[in-house]
Amino acid sequence: MSNILVIGELLDGKPNPITGELISAARKLSVVSGQEIGVVFTFETAAGIDQKSLNYGADKIYLVEHPLLSNENIEAHLAALEQVCTLISPSIILAGKTGLASDVVPRLAFKFGVGLAQDCVGLDIDEKSGDIVATRPVYGGNALATFKFTSVEPKVCVIRNNVFESPLSDMEVGVEIHRIEVEIDDSLIRTKLVEVVRRQSSGIRLEDASIVI
Question: What pLDDT is recorded for position 199?
Answer without folding.
Answer: 72
